[in-house]
Specification:
mainly beta, nine-stranded antiparallel β-sheet, about 15% helix
């Protein structure tokens, strides 16, 4: 539980996107789900309810990288170079040695990421509000409207301050740099210790996303706000029928400022 909370909060602060947990869970635009403790649980897709949409493609790939400040050390080694201190890589090995210095430290690297999005989110919101009026949409549901896809990605999370991993290159290096997320290098784990999460150069991951939901302006009293009651908590389909202008579809807000023991 603690690992998940730290991972999702750290990546949100770094990139402004929600983080997929478990990182290998497949995600798709239009997926409907419920957010609990910053974790998306899928229950369907808007296509299941007769809603279609166009996708706005992202044609400019970028690499994304994050590591917990002061807690992750990455060393690279070419074949024939001296063995790295504390590493199991031999003299003839080319590879990467990663060492962590605290529990729940994160190393995240995603290559060639793109961010497709639902193109007409105004239309999507209008259709969802109509479903809510008809009693066919739960006000707590959210929809994935933006999604980060990666050609390949590596995600490591330590389970102790003694965690480490040695990753050997089995493919041809050529002119490529030793990149921990590069699938073409044929990366193989030679040794690992105390890692709670381990994805090495995996393809097809969707590590980050954004969601939207039905919202309405805050109309409650300060007492409601103090108790964590929102205006949507009090909303009903009948209310939407009578006051359609008070409902809109927008990015969901989440509080990522909770204190987490690091």
């Amino acid at each position: 539980m603690k690992t998940k909370k730290i991972y999702t909060q750290e990546l949100y602060r770094q990139f402004g996107y929600l983080a997929t947990w478990n990182p290998g869970t497949p995600m798709a635009l239009g997926d409907i789900g419920i957010m609990r403790q910053k974790q998306f649980t899928k229950i369907g897709n808007v296509s299941d309810l007769g809603i279609s949409f166009e996708i706005e493609e992202d044609i400019t790939p970028i690499d994304l990288e994050f590591s917990s400040e002061g807690a992750v050390s990455v060393s690279t080694k070419l074949s024939g170079s001296p063995t790295l201190a504390g590493s199991s890589l031999s003299d003839i090995d080319a590879g990467i040695h990663v060492k962590f210095s605290k529990e729940n430290a994160i190393l995240f690297k995603a290559n060639e990421t793109r961010t497709p999005a639902i193109k007409n989110q105004i239309k999507l919101g209008e259709e969802i509000i109509e479903l809510f009026k008809a009693g066919k949409w739960d006000k707590n549901w959210v929809v994935i409207t933006e999604l980060v896809t990666a050609d390949s990605a590596s995600i490591l999370i330590s389970s102790s301050k003694e965690a480490s991993i040695d990753i050997k290159v089995s493919g041809e290096i050529g002119t490529n740099q030793l990149d921990i997320a590069e699938a073409e290098l044929g990366l193989e784990v030679k040794f690992s210790k105390d890692l709670s999460t381990k994805f090495i150069a995996k393809t097809g991951l969707t590590p980050l996303f954004k969601v939207s939901k039905i919202k309405r302006p805050f109309l409650g009293t300060p007492i409601f706000k103090a108790k964590g009651i929102t205006s949507m908590d009090l909303a009903t389909p009948q209310m939407a029928l009578e006051h359609n202008e008070l409902f809109f579809f927008d990015k969901a807000d989440f509080d990522f400022e909770e204190e987490v023991e690091m």
